Amino acid sequence: MALQQLDNLYRQTVMAYAQQPHHFHPVTPDDPCQVTKLNPTCGDVIHLAVTVADGRVKAMHFDGDGCAISMASASIMTDLMIGQTVGSALALAATFSKMTMGEAKDLSSLGEAKLLAGVVKFPARIKCATLAWHALTALLTETEGV
């Protein structure tokens, strides 16, 4: 696939997820496992709630306010993480983080999240792309004692 076609696919995918994010609904005090993370650089904020049962991510949703990259990344992440074991979810989050720094070699496990690899060219946008993933890592590490 030509570079221009990849760029177009990236833009289309990011915009589709940002405009109609999956698993986007309010995080409330009734959600037992939740975290809020802020990107002070640009003001993106995410509230993430996760339900873990039998060592697996059973459900996940988020709300917040942020740029298209931040919202798209959170949406893609929720699709990828539901059904994963806690260990797999943490490994995927680590791979995603490495990808945004240009350090990951095998991105096959990331599914559509690998389309966000282009943020490596824009260092100011890396925090936007990784905000939800860092929130998930913090939440799973805290609640599961990993």
Automatic annotation (TrEMBL):
What Pfam families does its record include? NifU_N
Domain called NIF system FeS cluster assembly NifU N-terminal: residue spans: 10-128
Q: Which Gene3D superfamilies match?
A: 3.90.1010.10
**Name listed for the protein in its UniProt record:** SUF system NifU family Fe-S cluster assembly protein
- Originating species: Leuconostoc holzapfelii
